[in-house]
Specification:
Pfam families: GMC_oxred_C, GMC_oxred_N. Belongs to the GMC oxidoreductase family. One of its GO terms (molecular function) is flavin adenine dinucleotide binding. The protein contains 14 helices and 24 strands. α1 packs parallel to α7, α1 runs parallel beside α14 and α5 packs across α14. α1 links the parallel β1 and β2. The chain has a domain of 156 residues: Cholesterol Oxidase, domain 2, CATH 3.30.410. It is globular, with a radius of gyration of 23 Å. The strands form seven sheets. Strands 1, 2, 10, 11, 12, 13 and 24 form a seven-stranded mixed beta sheet that branches. The chain is 27% helix and 22% strand. By secondary structure, the chain is α/β, with parallel strands linked by helices.
Amino acid sequence: MESAGEYDYIIVGGGTAGCVLANRLTRRRETNVLLIEAGGRDDYVWIHIPVGYLHCIGNPRTDWLYKTEPDAGLNGRSLIYPRGKVLGGSSSINGMIYMRGQSQDYDQWAELTGDAGWSWDKVLPLFKKSEDYHGGASELHGAGGEWRVEKQRLSWQLLDAFRDAAEQTGIRKIEDFNGGDNDGCNYFDVNQKRGIRWNTAKAFLKPAAKRANLTIMTGCHVERLIIDDTEHGKVCRGVEFTGGGTAFTATAVRETVLTAGAVGSPQILQLSGIGPAALLRDAGVAVHVDAPGVGDNLQDHLQLRMIYKVSNARTLNTTAASWFGKMKIGIEYAMFQSGPMSMAPSQLGAFARSDPGQATPNLQYHVQPLSLEKFGDPLHPFPAFTASVCNLRPTSRGHMRIASADSYAAPKITPNYLSTEQDRKTAAAALTLTRKIVAAPALARYAPEEFKPGIAFRTEEELADAASQIGTTIFHPVGTCKMGRAGDPTAVVDSELRVNGVQKLRVVDASVMPLIISGNTNSPTIMIAERAAQLIAEAAKAK
């Protein structure tokens, strides 16, 4: 193997967290950092045009092309499971929604880990640190940071009417989803800059790439970690990887940091002999650390896409139905970076309760002035809107497991959606609430007619079955390398994100979340990386 050199830190994965860490760790000129990314540069034009996610998801240039195992909770269906394979990671192909979640999410993290550093009061300054908020600095928001947050550059009367209908149903109108209490309805803020996607590669990595102490290697596939047995225990010395047909090793003097995401990080750990011992032996991998939690605790938000035909309404289905309509959309974006091409996949959001017993909202809506059968299909030939609703706090748990010792083989992803009675009840309640909103007076002028799942589903059991038929991932996998207290056999990392049983190794991405966030997961991952950068710097000073 050829040596790629020796560095203070090696970051495995140039996605959301990896870009942030590369920026923060290289601020000290004497610190040398290697960033390894399996994908390429973020120079594909469709990454930067907001509607271009349609061309990035399912595209091997930008997506790992994962699929789930057939899921009993979804009537045996297998789903696409997009994960970004490009600099910027999933921030290069996601929905661009800026969302922090609820204050209680982080307070629960602090309780579960025994570390007050993860509480809402402690993480809020980290969110603000990287933020460049359209409304300027305040008690809740930051200005001048790398992570640009803007209002959307579009307007749909149909969505305005849905917001009015939500208010008539008891879901209040609010101005900001990101103050710790997102109870209400509003248009989502987005990570865009003047109508162009703002990913973490542009925000954090591009400035850092000018520094001499950062080396970036793209198109490089990490095979495994280098784990040594020493008299003081297991130590991670670096990584083995391939790129351009050459096999490399790279050495980390201080730490190796996995930032490969909720699929990639547990996969690399398992391939390196850190994981459930029986699974590793079956796959032909030598066991270094029997860590049963690696790959377990998989949580995701399952969205239930309810579709309604409408009359007397402008929707994207009809606006983009002709070549003339498409041309107008293209001209508007080329001239003003506004209109449908500037659209995030979802424009209007709402947070609500599935039942009065919920202390905080446990449902999230993503409402869109369009409809289609499934992702990648053409828009329906009739005017319609989609009201997707997801259970923010699912009790179902899945897992991610390697299929073999071959690092190029896709892992087996088993989310186990709707595998608990509680999740099925919540799904049925969510569909019922959507019907109540759509039946409100504000939408009456559009004569909404339920197309999916259809009015034939009425009882709680029938609605739960309907959820199995129409449910699909909203691309928020987390939890597969969860952090926890000392002595928790299912915890993969401690509250400082250090891998249990292996020195000089951390995991820093959405996989460390012990519980899924009550909202979209990208910006919370940036916050995790901000805290990790502080923890790593503190550890370096202590030596």
